[in-house]
Amino acid sequence: NPLGFSKSALEAINKACLKLNAYPDGGHIELREAISARFGIDANRIICGNGSDEIFQILGRAYLKPGDEVIQSEYGFLAYSLVAQHQGAKCISAPTKDYVAQVDAIISCISEKTKMIFLDNPSNPTGTYLSFEEIQRLHKAVPSNAILVLDAAYAEYANNNDYSAGLELAAQFDNVVMTRTFSKIHGLAALRIGWGYGPQHIIDALNRVRDPFNLNSLAIAAGIAAMQDTEFVAKSNSHNKLWLDKISEEFTASGYKVIPSVANFILVEFVSENQANDFDEHLKANAIIARKVASYNLPKCLRISIGTEEANLLLIKAMKEFQK
Fold first, then answer.
1. What tens digit of pLDDT does each residue of 262-276 get?
2. What is each CA distance from 103 to 34, 71, 157, in whole angstroms?
3. 196 beta partners
4. Is-contact 293 302, C-beta < 8 A?
């Protein structure tokens, strides 16, 4: 988050520092209650983890075994394939179209071996998303003995009316888990806080598998304060929308292909891998760090996060200078 993080989170950390001699709450009771109050959901069906990544890993430990299959979209978050690899399962990638996950392609990959389907929505690194109607259509095709994991790390940035993070499905069905993070809009990436919501039987199983003190006291205190600071979240969303639109328009007007994004970054496709690398080096020379995504099989693309106003203006200037 280019705006940093909630001031109340820092105050909570400072206060929690006075009790470093005590172990943290292994059940994350107050943090789960804060999340419960914010979203109107059952605190007993919330699990907290050391980032969303840990929740993905304990899902794998609890439900995957060698020979099982995991499905993701073509450009799915790299952590999903690692979850499968750690448990000896096979990860299958369903083709996308125009960088957007395709429900029919995912459904066509489902077999009797399918035990988990990961879908990052909005997607990282493309920034694209599927509507709630499409997510519902996907869920109808998921076998009852397989789990649909909706990774909504960037949910707070998505303003489209047809978008849903998936809380409704996780509340209603026995095989849907939705995950969220404090690393993005809340700006607490260094503290590693993630949470998930799902049916009681899955949450109970995950709590039996996770480490007992997987969140430290400072993270718990900051997470509670951040969850309650809705003003900071709204301000961050407004800043992101303003500059996401402006930067996308500037790049598009200059002839670059920008993948429509609802997250806090844009994915830019260049004419070749060499041009992408040259542009990346040009940005570095101007003190701007972008993200190469060749590991996602996108060698011709760069992912560029929305920054502060100063950084965004510098990015636009550097982009125009590169053209010359």
1. 999 999 999 999 999
2. 34, 12, 22
3. 47, 179
4. yes
215-263 pLDDT, tens digit per residue, is 999 999 999 999 999 999 999 999 999 999 999 999 999 999 999 999 9
The 3-state DSSP composition of the chain as helix, strand, coil percent (nearest 5) reads 50, 15, 35
Instruction: Report which of 209, 214, 178, 213 is spatially closest to residue 42, judged by C-alpha positions.
Output: 178
116: which strand partners?
70, 147
Q: What is the DSSP string of 112-137?
A: TTEEEEEEESS-TTT-----HHHHHH
CA distances from 52 to 47, 48, 197, 215 (A): 10, 8, 11, 12
Cα–Cα distance, 56 to 115 (Å, whole number): 13
Q: What are phi and psi of 263, to 5 degrees?
A: -100, -155
Distance CA 274, CA 317 (A): 21
Q: Which residues pair with 114 in a beta bridge?
A: 69
Q: Which distant-in-sequence residues (6+ apart) come within 8 Å of 288 by Cβ?
A: 311, 314, 315, 318
